[in-house]
Design goal:
Strand order of the largest sheet: 3-4-9-6-5-10
Helix content: 10-25%
Order of helices and strands: EEHEEEEEEEHEEEHEEEEEEEE
Oligomer: single chain
Number of strands: 20
Number of helices: 3
Number of domains: 3
Distance between the termini: 102 Å
Length: 333
Amino acid sequence: MSALHVDEWDSAGKIHRMSARSIFAFVIMLVVLGACERKSAVKSSETSATPAPPSTGVPSPRPVIAPSTWDSSAGPIMFVRGNTAAEAYVVFPAITDSTPSDDVHFDSALARNTPVELFERAGGGDAARVGAVSGGEWDADQCIEWPAAKIVTTSVSAASSGWTVAFLKGRARAIPLDTIETMAHADSAQLAADITRLVSTVPNDTARTFRGIPYAVRTAYRFTPVEGVEGVVADVVRTLNQEATPLEEHTLIVGERPSGSNAPYRLAYREVTAGSDETLESSDVLAAVMIGAPPHVDLVLAREGYESNAYALLERRPDGSWRLRWTSAHTGC
């Protein structure tokens, strides 16, 4: 049998013949070159990949804790009446809603055996003493509760008082609140009319749902924040009686006018909350006090919600306007 051969043309146009052995060597060379090129491409792809950054071991940043805006001249703690006149909750104002549970520590030494003064809406200032302090829970996933304290009264008047809030002795002075419920009928009717007129003439009423619904005065108090000024603080309500989900709107207002005047009240503060029974938070005035040096006037508020409670200070500025100075952490289960 004749040997296998292939005709090949050279550059001069002459034919040369390649033997089978030459053809086999040529094919082997092509295969080796192709394999090298593929290996090089793979290696280049591998070396161009970005390696994962090494772990630095730095922990995630802690959440930002909102600082308390409490007025330190009122003392490091405040007491709010419990179920009876002999019981109180110890409020630590430095703790806010953003304080992590691990950072909450109740220093009961600030309260135990400490002399305090009891305040109520009508005035107060009766002396008492804090007895045993116990409890307190701060688990955001379960319950949040202030510690409880026993209040030991030192006089008959203190034992029978309807006190609502207490401060460490010498930290506050009482400003009497005159409630609309105890006024003569003509006076209470006039005050209610003045309050509804004030709130209904406030511009920028954006609550379209409640437009056209009349206001009702839920609570109202007159007081003298400074000499020559008559103040009023009230919670005014509008109700939408929907069958499935009744809605309420609460407007907390503070108004002022010259003492002894029949002029309309000037709006000094307005705060509106609205919603259903399960979402609404309303405000009740616990007391009016004078704090600090030079003294300034504060209204102590209780914020009551469906499953939580908080406390707040509404403070009067020198120009006659009012601002929300401080709000406590919310408690509840």
